[in-house]
Amino acid sequence: MSSRDRILARIRAAVADAPPAPEPDRSYLPAHVPEDDPAALVDLLHRNLTEYRAVVHRTDEAGISDLLMRLLAARGAQNILVPPALPPHWLAAVDATRIHDRSATTPAQLDAADSVVTGCALAIAETGTLVLDGGPDQGRRRITLIPDHHICVVRTPAQLVASVPQALPRLDPTRPLTWISGPSATSDIELDRVEGVHGPRTLEVVLLQED
């Protein structure tokens, strides 16, 4: 018998007569904001994203192409990372070189991209969180971690939920989930904030209103 087996046997013997663990209390509220007011949820998401230092814009299908053109031009973006199924009309007005998300793309090529534009899987209003799952309009996780500038488009109200408990059943846990609350940032013991350490330094979120 190995040392591991002996230790586990002692643990089993020690807890053999212990009472069963009580069932967890699940009487908590699934959300703390009204769920039947989509406009209020969008406003809450907007406020919380801004609190996390994301830059938030609102538009509709008719205005998204011009908006993305202005945002990318303001950054001077010449090379843009593009997921495979990003709607083509979103970037129809953008005059820049597209770098497509391919497995053969090297880290150096990704680092040379000025910006990346993606969709998302979900957005959570209460926490100001964007969730990416590597879907066709988001691409591989790495394309949203290496470039310094990320524009993420959230379709509202279809991709918006109030809370984390509401988000989890809509997500596939086998997919590569990335949870984003604002631009990448960290701080040291003296609370000096440093942005862009393990992800984009600048996060812009477009709330795309759909009928």
Give an overview of the whole structure.
The chain has five helices and twelve strands. The chain is of the alpha/beta class and 211 residues long. The protein has a single domain, classed as NagB/RpiA/CoA transferase-like (Rossmann fold), CATH 3.40.50.10420. The strands form three sheets. Strands 1-12-7-4-2-3 form a six-stranded parallel sheet, with helices on both faces. A four-stranded mixed sheet has the order 8-5-6-9. Strands 10-11 form a two-stranded antiparallel sheet. β5 (122-124) and β6 form a beta hairpin. The radius of gyration is 21 Å and the shape is globular. It starts with a helix and ends with a strand. 31% of the residues are buried.
Topology diagram in text:
Layout: H1 3-14, H2 38-51, E1 55-60, H3 64-75, E2 79-82, E3 97-100, H4 107-111, E4 115-118, E5 122-124, E6 129-132, E7 149-156, E8 160-161, H5 164-167, E9 178-180, E10 185-187, E11 193-195, E12 202-209
Parallel strand pairs: 1-12, 2-3, 2-4, 4-7, 5-8, 7-12
Antiparallel strand pairs: 5-6, 6-9, 10-11
